[in-house]
Design goal:
The protein is of the alpha/beta class and about 375 residues long. The chain is about 45% helix and about 15% strand. A six-stranded parallel β-sheet has the order 8-7-6-9-10-11, with helices on both faces. Strands 1-2-4-3-5 form a five-stranded mixed β-sheet, with helices on both faces. Helix 7 runs antiparallel to helix 14 and helix 14 packs antiparallel against helix 15. The longest helix has 21 residues. The N terminus is likely disordered.
């Protein structure tokens, strides 16, 4: 090996630099089934890392890596703020689930999860469903979000939407003085798994709802169920609409400079992960008088739902825990005001405080 080889590796940006702050990143490949997956464990300070498996046709492997690293970090903060004894992890399977998802691929993936010995627990995410978790569980003991028939919680989007609604109620109270969306106009971008349940809560609460989705079928389902809901062609049209609340419920990066510049809503509260396109957006929102409810705080209902399976699932117990997202959101807004920081910073501080305090207890040896 040349004398400068070590230096060359050290100086070159690579996966270790990108994964800074993460405990473990696992690249999984099974050629016979076509599986290409990445599992990222951000932190196990509070317990085993729990996070869903996203099945998505990423344009590049680099895109997949960037997504799983950001998502897994968010899961650590989500679990901490939700008061769960869990760490943060996430996985992505690269490919179009409509084209390449098979029993063999899912079972191969399950064996990779099993090989981690319980450091990572998987669940559903974009492109995966409870039935997929049942297939994965044929090779793996560390699976949540399974079908009700197999003792699981079923579709975790139910409580994800419920938690977002509770966060939105808290944001409404902070902004307009009452914990209701009655009479407010709410724009929901993405009405698939979570968005459609959120629309139901909003309509029931008396909100005027405007929706958009890349899937015409998803929009048609919503309009069939709720004919009073209006639809616009795309997200660009939605954010330019007269809104009181904007709810991004699709993929990440929804809050870009361009969106913030045109947004009329006074509240942003949605289910999508990693909504801030880059650092500093949270300050731009605050400067424009927009109250941002941090995504990992309000969308924790799904994590709460699948985590409850670890105790033997009770929907009523999980729903009661998800309802506390209202209290957590109120607490974060109050801390943000008292500390003079955006809510995103306040939420991070609370999550980091809990991770420090609880992980310190691991220094006390218990037999």
């Amino acid at each position: 090996m040349p004398d400068n080889a070590v230096g060359a590796v050290t100086d070159s940006p690579g996966v270790f630099a990108q994964a800074s702050g993460h405990e473990q990143v696992v690249f999984c490949r099974d050629e016979p089934s076509g599986l290409s997956a990445i599992i990222a464990i951000h932190s196990t300070a509070l317990g085993p890392a729990l996070g869903g498996t996203r099945f998505y046709p990423y344009a590049t492997e680099q895109d997949a890596l960037a997504d799983v690293l950001a998502l897994s970090r968010g899961m650590s903060y989500k679990a901490a703020l939700a008061g769960l004894d869990l760490g943060g992890g996430k996985a992505v399977i690269i490919g179009d689930p409509a084209q390449v998802k098979t029993e063999a691929l899912l079972r191969a993936y399950g064996r990779f999860v099993q090989s981690l010995g319980g450091r990572y627990l998987t669940a559903c995410d974009v492109g995966t469903y409870s039935e997929d978790m049942d297939q994965i569980a044929r090779e793996c003991s560390f699976v949540t979000g399974r079908t009700v028939a197999h003792g699981g919680a079923g579709d975790s989007s139910v409580l994800t939407a419920y938690g977002v609604f509770q966060g939105m109620r808290a944001a409404a109270e902070a902004t307009w003085g009452a914990p209701t969306l009655h009479g407010r106009t709410v724009g929901v971008a993405g009405v698939g798994k979570v968005g459609r349940h959120l629309v139901g809560h909003l309509v029931e609460d008396g909100a005027s709802v405007v929706v958009t989705d890349v899937s015409e079928e998803a929009v048609a389902r919503i309009r069939t169920t709720y004919p009073e809901v209006r639809a616009v062609p795309d997200t660009a049209a939605l954010v330019r609409s007269e809104l009181d609340v904007y709810a991004p419920c699709a993929l990440g990066g929804a809050l870009s400079d361009e969106v913030v510049d045109v947004l009329s809503a006074r509240v942003v509260c949605g289910a999508a992960n990693n909504q801030l396109a880059h650092e500093g957006i949270e300050k731009q929102l605050e400067d424009r008088g927009v109250l941002y409810a941090p995504d990992y705080m309000v969308n924790a209902g799904g994590l709460i739902q699948v985590a409850d399976e670890l105790e033997g699932f009770s929907f009523d117990r999980a729903k009661a825990r998800a309802e506390k997202i209202y209290d957590t959101t109120t607490k974060v807004f109050a801390l943000a005001t008292s500390d003079g920081v955006p809510p995103a910073v306040a939420a991070d501080r609370l999550a980091e405080q809990r991770m420090r305090e609880i992980s310190r207890l691991r220094g006390i040896h218990l037999r």
